[in-house]
Design a protein that fits this description.
It is built from twelve helices and five strands. It is α/β, with parallel strands linked by helices.
Length: about 230
């Protein structure tokens, strides 16, 4: 018995976008975490007691560790944060365990933005949204954020620089995320505190909004419609 032949318009069908959902992405520091913000006046400094508690000048730590080996190697997965700390902490005046120092860092840089997370929890109850994190992080802090701070309860995945091998605003970062989430009917919506990252996301075809305060999120028309209307 002959099998029915596919109609012409069925033979080479392309994968269809997820028509019923939209991907919404959030940065971590300055957005999900009340921490270092692109606008200094909006920052909550995790290192304000670093000199007293650990004997390290926070300005030197930022300049000689964060803006050097951390950004160049650790945040893109080329070196572990423990190895980097082992190498650099002695020159900064700290001779204790890098494990102890890293734990201090994690504890003091973990203040969740509760009002934002409460709003995201409302969105999680809808069936037309998928929630993601897009952040420049090293592996251990990414795991801490996901597991210890409980972000896994709200988000479908975390895209972070050490996992990807590229930092925002590199196009490779955004391309990786798109490949993982699959075709979308609408551009991803992204909230980030850093203007260069916002510009990079827009150049990659995303709808990106600068996040300074909660109102930048809750007043976005697409978000507001879902926050303040009945759940589907």
């Amino acid at each position: 018995m002959a099998h029915p032949q596919p109609r012409a318009n069925e033979r080479h069908a392309e994968p269809k976008a997820e028509n019923m959902t939209r991907a919404v992405f959030f940065d971590v520091d300055g957005v999900l975490i009340n921490g270092i913000h692109a606008r200094p006046e909006l920052s909550r400094r995790w290192d304000q007691n670093l000199l007293v508690d650990m004997g390290i000048d926070p300005e030197r730590f930022t300049k000689e560790f964060i803006f050097d080996i951390f950004v160049k190697k650790v945040s893109v997965g080329e070196m572990s944060v423990m190895e980097a700390l082992e190498r650099r902490l002695p020159s900064l005046g700290y001779h204790g365990s890098p494990v102890v120092f890293h734990h201090y860092w994690l504890l003091n840089d973990s203040e969740l933005n509760r009002p934002l997370l409460d709003a995201i929890r409302i969105l999680k109850g809808r069936d037309d949204i998928r929630l993601y994190i897009a952040t420049n992080q090293e592996h251990l802090r990414a795991s801490w954020l996901w597991s210890h701070l409980g972000l896994h309860d709200l988000f479908d995945d975390m895209f972070y620089s050490a996992r990807i091998g590229a930092r925002k605003p590199d196009k490779a970062f955004f391309d990786f995320a798109i490949r993982k989430i699959g075709p979308q009917a609408e551009p991803p919506l992204f909230f980030d505190d850093t203007p260069k990252v916002v510009e990079g996301a827009r150049a990659a075809g995303w709808e990106a909004m600068q996040f300074d305060t909660m109102d930048d999120f809750s007043s976005h028309p697409w978000i507001a419609e879902r926050l303040f209307s009945p759940t589907q």
